[in-house]
């Protein structure tokens, strides 16, 4: 018999603590080598820890959302004789220990559960959850209280046997403001009474914190302008049609990036970081272009470093590469931090305007809305034109509204006359 | 010019629905007038539950002594007992008087005003009460609770005016035991009374239109009763229709259309009960009906604002405890509480021989409701206490029906001597949402009949202690 202790590993970059994101095992569970044990997260990297051994989970420390110091023992695994003996090298962890406390196998007393369980089961074990479409199970006193409090018991999760709702369950439900969830299935035509809760942890918590901080501290100035895209679209299509092998397909983003790169030297206050604490705005000559990206884990902002040094093709491939890496969860820390200005595009989804939230400590974010053919009054008649809106937000403490508007107008001029982008 | 009164709550009917409503409403500080004409306690105390149980108890006692007289048992020999029917009825009447005057006391101490008279409504909130002495009082109420109850259904060809024809009420008033009796209707009232008379020594014959007795229960449960009737010389004519009074008794037509005569000194009509909805101005109240019954929502509110109806007026099951629960609930609603009538079950019992109790769904009802079930049946023949009380040989049992997936109990049924007293635990199990494991793991006192419930749960779980498998 051996006991493996697995410590919260140092996943690099000198971090001293990490957050438990999700446990895949529970106490008493039998696990095999390489089974996933837990996800932990530091900064923006989430790492899955596999089991180095076969065995039974004895203890688990820390709940999802807990931030723990590197080196803390987070799980112990009891192994059978064979696997415990040699200290196996595991791909990620070297912390696993073999504490040889009990060399002799002790014939243990049968567990109480073993005694109670009959050898043959006449019936399957009853399910613990509440069945589908059945009346909530609760005592008359609980039903009465629920009615008095105007609580629909069908929405209350029951912790008792067969999902019975106890007074405590009702208290918890009321205390949660009705946000606890019940295991219920939705049938067509029936009322949907279920609510679900999500523990906001990991990346989602980071996103929540950052955006809340941003919205709370930054006085946003929003500005929406429309851009005529006929010429640029013609150019883009031409370039795509004639691109050489190995060159990426061009989207609008590299063009917009180029426009920004071109005008930002004129508006250094918009390509800056401002951290209110020290009262200093840092203006950058380099343009590290953040690209807001929806990933399966949530919003991320991969960064194209030194975008100002790239041509349209390099820009296009760099944007594609960092975004794909972020989506696949393979983005490095360097690729996920350090932007000086951000582009956010909801273009594909449609929408005529948006009010993007600034990616603090940056001071500007440029939003792209859908390119659509719209009637435009031109030369005394309505004409169909490819139009696109830019919805942008600026930190009004650093960027004056007038300057912000001028910046966007310059971007507009460049995009409407795409030849000037390359001059 | 008649006197006028104004009140917060006016309750019509002082039966087991109306009087608890009055007591609770008065306790909650409401101004109450209760109008009653048939005696406080209603059918239950005066003409139903309690007096019939008294007669049934006496009949059982008489039968036991008779049994000892004809064949010594348990080492006890007795002389042939003699029955003084008039004295029995008087004893029963004394009991009733004691209980009904108790109700009057309770109402008084709670602070409810009781008027002994007949109310007639001119509109939903106004009625004229004619008191016993002829005085008339006009009452205007903010809220009205209707609890007028029900009466026996009569058959036109068996008029209650004929001295040979008995209702369930007059059957409890006899001063002389009839030698022969025909009972029309083998529902619970007919069976309870018919069996009691059979125990007292009357030759009893049943005429039942359906092909079985007690149709709300399954055959498994009624079999012990059928067996008792058979072994005690009670004739049961099923699928038969009572036709007419004859010189010697009553005639009926059997399933094949053949006419038969039964010699019967008395004919007890027990074909059901109907709500009392006429003679008191219901038609002036603007209340929606549901065929013969008053339509209410789950708070017992009628279609007329401020008018509630409770008890037998609402239809089946016509049971005192249902009316009581509704009465209490309406009182609390009137006091501003949030209440809803949502019992898991309304338990029901029959004081037949042997007794029957049913709570929740029978296995057949559960299957019809789409449930996948398991059941556990435990016979009283395997229970020491039942045998020690000579109760184990009548074919009685406890049967529990539970959902297969989560073992939540859906119904509990029992038949056997004294099993009606188990109804409380059965009802509690359902209301609390008990699973089989809850019952099986509750320590049940030995030696009592309640062990049978625990054993039935264990049986459903496949682990009975006292049945060989």
Structure characterization notes:
The complex is a heterodimer of chains A (about 425) and B (about 475). Chain A has helices at about 80-85, 110-115, 140-150, 165-175, 200-215, 230-240, 250-265, 310-325, 335, 400-415, and strands at about 1-5, 15-25, 30, 35-40, 45-50, 55-60, 65-70, 75-80, 220-230, 270-275, 280-285, 290-295, 300, 305, 340-345, 365-370, 370-380, 380-395. Chain A contains 10 helices and 18 strands. Chain A folds into 3 domains: about 1-105, Beta Barrel (OB fold (Dihydrolipoamide Acetyltransferase, E2P)); about 130-200, Irregular (Dihydrolipoamide Transferase); about 205-420, 2-Layer Sandwich (Chloramphenicol Acetyltransferase). By secondary structure, chain A is of the alpha+beta class. In chain A, the strands form 4 sheets. In chain A, strands 9, 12, 13, 14, 15, 16, 17 and 18 form an 8-stranded mixed β-sheet that branches. Chain A has a 4-stranded antiparallel β-sheet with strand order 1-8-6-3. Chain B folds into 3 domains: about 5-45 and about 90-150 and about 275-335, FAD/NAD(P)-binding domain, CATH 3.50.50; about 165-270, FAD/NAD(P)-binding domain (3-Layer(bba) Sandwich); about 350-460, 2-Layer Sandwich (Enolase-like, domain 1). Chain B contains 12 helices and 23 strands. Chain B has helices at about 20-25, 40-45, 50-70, 85-110, 190-200, 220-230, 320-335, 365-370, 385-390, 425-430, 435-440, 450-460; strands spanning about 5-10, 30-35, 115-125, 125-130, 135-145, 150, 165, 180-185, 205, 235, 240-245, 250-255, 260-265, 265-270, 275, 290, 295, 305-310, 350, 355-360, 375-380, 395-405, 410-415. In chain B, the strands form 6 sheets. Chain B has a 5-stranded mixed barrel with strand order 1-2-3-4-5. Chain B has a 5-stranded parallel β-sheet with strand order 7-14-8-9-10, covered by helices on one side. A 5-stranded antiparallel β-sheet of chain B has the order 19-20-23-22-21, with helices on both faces. In chain B, helix 3 (about 50-70) runs parallel beside helix 5. Chain B is globular. The N and C termini of chain B lie far apart (about 80 Å). Classes of the chains: A alpha+beta (about 425), B alpha/beta (about 475). The interface of A and B includes residues 122, 126, 128, 137 and 148 of A.
């Amino acid at each position: 018999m051996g006991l493996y202790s697995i410590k919260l590993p140092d996943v690099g970059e000198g971090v001293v603590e990490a957050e438990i994101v999700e446990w895949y095992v529970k106490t008493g569970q039998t696990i095999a080598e390489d089974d996933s044990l837990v996800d932990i997260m530091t900064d923006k990297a989430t790492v899955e820890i596999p089991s180095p051994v076969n065995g039974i989970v004895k203890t688990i420390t820390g709940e999802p959302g807990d931030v723990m110091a590197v080196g803390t023992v987070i799980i112990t695994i009891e192994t059978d004789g064979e696997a415990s003996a040699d200290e196996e090298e595991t791909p990620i962890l070297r912390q696993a220990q073999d504490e040889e406390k009990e060399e002799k196998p002790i014939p243990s007393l049968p567990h109480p559960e073993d005694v109670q369980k009959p050898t043959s089961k006449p019936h399957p074990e009853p399910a613990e959850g509440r069945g589908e479409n059945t009346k909530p199970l609760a005592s008359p006193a609980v039903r009465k209280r629920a009615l008095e409090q105007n609580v629909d018991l069908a929405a209350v999760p029951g912790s008792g046997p067969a999902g019975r709702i106890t007074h405590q369950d009702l208290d918890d439900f009321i205390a949660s403001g009705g946000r606890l969830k019940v295991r219920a299935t939705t049938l067509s035509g029936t009322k949907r009474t279920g609510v679900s809760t999500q523990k906001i942890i990991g990346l989602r918590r980071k996103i929540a914190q950052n955006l809340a901080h941003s919205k709370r501290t930054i006085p946003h100035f929003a500005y929406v302008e429309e851009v005529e895209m006929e010429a640029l679209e013609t150019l883009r299509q031409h370039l795509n049609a004639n691109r050489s092998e190995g060159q990426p397909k061009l989207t609008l983003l590299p063009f917009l990036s180029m426009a920004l790169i071109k005008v930002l030297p004129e508006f250094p206050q918009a390509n800056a970081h401002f951290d209110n604490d020290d009262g200093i705005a840092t203006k950058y000559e380099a343009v590290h272009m953040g690209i807001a990206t929806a990933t399966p884990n949530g919003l991320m902002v991969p960064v194209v470093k030194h975008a100002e040094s790239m041509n349209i093709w390099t820009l296009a491939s760099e944007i594609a590469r960092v975004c794909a890496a972020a989506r696949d969860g393979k983005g490095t820390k360097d690729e996920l931090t350090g932007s000086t200005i951000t582009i956010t595009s909801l273009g594909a989804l449609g929408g005529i305007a948006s009010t993007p939230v600034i990616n603090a400590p940056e001071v500007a974010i440029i939003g792209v809305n859908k390119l659509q053919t719209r009637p435009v009054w031109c030369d005394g008649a309505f004409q169909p034109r490819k139009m696109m809106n830019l919805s942008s937000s600026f930190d009004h403490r650093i960027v004056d509204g007038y300057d912000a508007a001028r910046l966007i107008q310059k971007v507009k001029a460049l995009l409407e006359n795409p030849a000037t982008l390359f001059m | 010019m008649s006197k006028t009164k104004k009140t917060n709550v006016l309750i019509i009917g002082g039966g087991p629905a109306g009087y608890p409503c009055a007591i609770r409403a008065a306790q909650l500080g409401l101004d109450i007038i209760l109008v009653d004409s048939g005696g406080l306690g209603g059918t239950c105390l005066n003409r139903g539950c309690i007096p019939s149980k008294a007669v049934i108890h006496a009949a059982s006692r008489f039968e036991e002594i008779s049994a000892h007289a004809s064949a010594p048992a348990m080492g006890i020999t007795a002389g042939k007992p003699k029955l003084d029917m008039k004295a029995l009825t008087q004893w029963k009447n004394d009991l009733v008087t004691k209980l009904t005057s108790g109700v009057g006391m309770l109402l008084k101490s709670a602070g409810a005003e009781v008027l002994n008279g007949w109310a007639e409504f001119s509109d939903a909130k106004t009625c004229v009460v004619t008191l016993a002495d002829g005085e008339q009082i006009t009452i205007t109420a903010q809220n009205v609770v209707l609890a007028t109850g029900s009466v026996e259904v009569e058959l036109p060809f068996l008029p209650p005016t004929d001295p040979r024809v008995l209702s369930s009420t007059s059957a409890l008033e006899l001063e002389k035991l009839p030698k022969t009796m025909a009972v029309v209707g083998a529902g619970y009232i007919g069976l309870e009374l018919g069996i009691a008379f059979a125990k007292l020594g009357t030759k009893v014959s049943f005429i039942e239109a359906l092909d079985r007795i007690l149709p709300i229960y399954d055959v498994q449960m009624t079999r012990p009763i059928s067996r008792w009737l058979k072994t005690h010389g009670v004739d049961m004519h099923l699928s038969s229709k009572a036709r007419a009074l004859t010189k010697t008794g009553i005639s009926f037509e059997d399933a094949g259309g053949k006419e038969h005569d039964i010699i019967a000194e008395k004919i007890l009509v027990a074909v059901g009960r109907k709500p009392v909805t006429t003679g008191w101005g219901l038609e002036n109240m603007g209340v929606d009906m549901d065929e013969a019954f008053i339509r209410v929502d789950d708070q017992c509110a009628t279609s007329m604002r401020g008018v509630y109806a409770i008890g037998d007026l609402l239809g089946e099951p016509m049971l005192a405890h249902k009316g009581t629960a509704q009465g209490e609930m309406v009182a609390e609603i009137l006091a501003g509480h949030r209440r809803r009538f949502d019992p898991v079950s309304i338990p029901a019992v029959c004081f037949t021989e042997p007794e029957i109790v049913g709570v929740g769904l029978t296995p057949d009802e559960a299957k019809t409701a789409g449930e996948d079930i398991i059941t556990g049946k435990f016979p009283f023949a395997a229970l020491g206490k039942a045998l020690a009380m000579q109760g184990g040989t009548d074919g009685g049992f406890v049967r529990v029906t539970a959902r297969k997936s989560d073992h939540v109990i859906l119904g509990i049924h029992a038949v056997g001597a004294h099993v009606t007293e188990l109804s409380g635990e059965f009802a509690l199990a359902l209301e609390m949402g008990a699973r089989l494991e809850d019952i099986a793991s509750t320590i049940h006192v030995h030696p009592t009949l309640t062990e049978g419930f625990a054993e039935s749960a264990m049986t459903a779980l496949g682990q009975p202690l006292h049945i060989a498998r």
